[in-house]
Every structure is written in C-alpha cells, then in structure tokens.
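step 3/5: co-fold with calcium ion
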Amino acid sequence: MRKRHAIAATGLAVALLCSSGESPLAQQLSSPSVDEALLLAPPADAWITYGRGYDETHHSPLVEIDRSTVGRLGLAWSVDVGNDGKIETTPIVWNGTLYGTGAYSVVYAIDLKTQTLEWRWDPALVRGGYPAGGPRFCCGPVNRGVAIYRGNVYAGLLDGRLVALNAETGRMVWAVQTTPQGSDYSITGAPRVIKGKVIIGNGGAEYGGRGYLSAYDAASGELAWRFYTVPGDPSKPFEDEAQERAAKTWKGEWWKIGGGGHPWDGIAYDPEADLLYFGTGNGSPWNQEHRSPGGGDNLYLSSIVALRPETGKYVWHFQTTPGDNWDYNAAQSLVLADLTIQGRPRKVIMQAPKNGFFYVLDRITGEFISGAPFVNVTWATGLDPKGRPIEAANARYGEAPTRLTPGPGGAHHWPPMAFNPTTQLAYFVGQENGTLYSRAPGVEYQVGRWNTGTNFDFVARGNGGAVGAAPNQTAAAPPPAAAAAASAVTVDPVMRGFLVGWDPIAQKARWRIASPGGGGSLSTAGGLVFGSDGTGRFYALDAATGATLWETRLLPGVATPVTYMFEGKQYVSVMSGSTRGRIFTFVLDGKTPMPSR
Ligand code: CA
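step 4/5: write tokens
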C-alpha cells in the first residue's frame, strides 16, 4: 500500500517540476527502490541520500513552503523513536518511509502514511561505551544517517560494523566488520552508495589509529577497495603509490600510534568527472613533534582527497592543514557547485573545515581557487597563493600554554553545510572558540584513551554542538606555571555559535546570526534556510538576508532537517531530543499540538 501512495505523490511532484529537468516519472515508476539512475538524478520530492544528491548541497528544489508561506508552518505529526544520547542524523525519505538513526547506531523506519514506527533496529551496543564494555568513540555515541539502495538500508555502527538491513522489515541482510574488532575505531558517518559500492569511513584518531576509506559491494558486503589516509610502516610494502609518496612527508615512527587522518564524515561524488571526494581527519597524536618529529606535511592528514570510485585509486589531494598540530581535521561536509568566478565558469568543491578557513577548489584538478577565514583565526595569518596556510609564529606551541583560535572544537564541526544555487550562498553553523594548547612532555600510547600528546583546555566552553571538553589522558596535569598562565588568560564566556550565509565567490559572510550548538542546515528553493540551536530552537531564515521568518521550540539537541513531498504536500522533518528522541514533521497549516514533554 505504501508504494502506491508514494508513487501518487511522486507523480504530482514530477508534474510540478518537469520544466526544471528533474528525473522523469517513467524512471521512478520503474524504480521501486533507489538505484543508480535515481541517485544520479535525485527526485525532487524525496530525500534519497545524505546530502539529497551526490553534490551534497542539502538543498531541495521544493517551493510550496517559501518565504511567504513559511509563517503557516505547523506540526503535522511527531513520532517517539527512542534515544539514549547525542543525535546528528539526516533522515532519508523515500517510498513513503523515513529512515533515521539515533544514538548507539539505532536505525529506524517511520511510515509516513500511518505516522508510526515501522521498525526499529538496535544493535544493542553497550551504553556508556568503553570501558563499560562498549565501543570507543571520541564525541558522543552519534550517527549521522543511512544510505538506501536496491531495497537495502546501509548503516555504519559505533563498533565499526557496516550493516545492510532490509528496507521493508529492518532485518539484517549482511554485516561486515570494517575495522579491527574491538579496536579504537568507530563509525559515526553516513555511508554513500556510488556505482554499486557502499563507501564508508571511520573515526578514532584521538585513540591512536590509521584512517581509511573503504568500499564494499552493496549486494554482497564484499570489500572492493580500501584507501589509507596515512602511510603504514615503511619497512612493509606500501598498499599503493599514493602511500609511498605520502611516506616521504613523514618522519620518525609515526605508524606506532597510527598517524590518524580518519575520514569520519564528508563524502561527495561528481559523476561527470567520475571523482569521489572525501575529507580526512586530524593527526594522531595531535602534537606533531610527538607524531612526526622534525615536521613534514604528513599526507594525507586534514585533506580533501579525490579518488576513482571503482578502484579507490588516488587522483588528487588538497591539504588544508599541512603538518596538523591542532586537531584541525578536514572531514567536514563537502559541497559541489558550479560557480562563475572572475568571469570563468568553475566546477568547484567547497569546505569549511575546523581550521577556520573557507576553501573553494577546482574539483577536477584540486587546484586552490580561493580561501578566507570565516571566524577569528590566530593560528595562521592567511593563505598563500596556493592555499597553504601562513602559520603564526606561535602556532607550533611548545610546553608553555599558547592560546590559539580555533581550538580543537573547530570553527565548523559535524553539522552539514547547505548550498543554494540561486542565492549562491553556503549555509553552516560554526563557532568562535579558542584553546590553550601545550605540548605534553611525552606521549605513551594507551589503549582506549585519548593519545593526543597535548594538554589543552577549552578557553571557551558552553557549546553543546562542539566536541566537548575532554582531557588529554596520556599526560600528567599541566605544571603549576602552565596552570597559572592558563588562569591569567581572559576567557570568552561562551563559544559563540552562529549560522552564517557565506558567499563563496566573494569569500565573505553575507549575514550571520547567533545560533550556539546548532545542528545541520537545510536550504530550499523556497528561499529558506532551516537551522537550529542547542536549546531546541528550530527556525527558518530568509536565505538572502538571514532574517528569521518562522521558529518553534523542539527538544534540546536538534539534528539536521530534510524536506520532501508526500501525498501532494511539502513536509519538513527533523530529529530532536538527545534523551528519548522524536522525529518532528511540519506542514503548512499543521495544527497538531506539540507533545507535552
Ligand atoms: Ca579529532
């Protein structure tokens, strides 16, 4: 029954959109499950992959809810999905069903027709994580979402498994351990399906590890390829030429604590160029003197890397933070767009990584086009003509505490960035924050603990959306002199979180509003940006000006909204609530009262 409803809705939306070149109705009728053709031309009325399309814009062409109607938005329904911790999911909506994830890698499906939980799959990971017996994870038991393809739902789990579930029943089809079992790796990111392969990364640099991106056959779960982001022990054969080249940029015995570089989030794909892009994480340990004594760029840490999706073969890379020393990973969301820059049409890839600079690169060649700070940045004084940061004199801090901005919380973290091709603005939540860094005298690898080789303290606290204050657990408390220096620093009262409308051509903010602890952004052709803050405020802004046009109050902790058509109406759904957890769904003239709790 659900399929019939979904097709009816699809037909209506397609009729509305046929002039804009969206996917034809015939294709959708013959595609009851998401296949390659749909992924290449994502239907306007659905939300079939994490970023809505391979370009990862988190932008919907739907226009029923627009600047003039958004004031009529009200609750249509909400469903309690059960939840035990921090949430970061972007739901997938297809064929009358919404697929989401919660804390501890729980996956669920909601029937849009009956507005009830269709199934809920809980891998029963130990709550509390390690050392309670569960998996290790740096930043909450979060999960950012699933991929759907040919009747399966794919999810990565905190314990490093990748699972395929039957989309109708939630029953497991296959599961594969993508990381060493019981290791310090975790998966929090959403898989993507490209050319029949499920692409998945991992996290865990703080614990000591060697990052990699893997591709598994979507049908069988068989490993197709793996690309390491850091070279291994050079006394053993390198996996590929890219590793051999990267090893020349490292010193010492980096492989003993892994090196880091975990790709835990951003993935995009350009089908025309046939390039898969992903972002890599910070170094492990953080302090480069402990990781690669004497320096070096330490490829491919804190980089955007382009690969061939069928083979995992390296094509190009751009390193945002050479020789990372600050936990400045570049795993953040990657967005593809076609922009005219200085009179020239450019196919670009954009990222706002933790280091505080907004980057626009040529996505075919990896060439740097432009970059500019989107927050107060003190670790670097700017970028050189090739996009390499010009480090401040004190950036490579020693044992004396040194205040640098951004701190390890990053100028932009997990919340997806959206991009509107009409306003040509990128939308994302970030935060102003700084940290006192000091190099620990030494670092001794300890299983299950942070191995950063760095003492640090968030000078600014209070942003629920940031990484959270976690002590370095491999070094003793800072010496009294360091503690005295720390207390003498004037501290920011809060991490000043914001949502910004960033012009990537002019490389400047068009507008910026306060939004501490916010979740991901949704852009729509209705001229709207949906966002949230950590208190549960959920709002719609004018995409051109940042003016608030509508707002409501959800539960503390809001993830990332999506929009879609169902039975002829446009809906907006978002998960909210770090404890319990609900999917809230809004529609024009929705009159359902907010749940009382
Ligand atoms: Ca990190």
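step 5/5: annotate
The pocket of calcium ion is lined by residues 205-206, 281-282, 327, 329 (CB under 6 Å).
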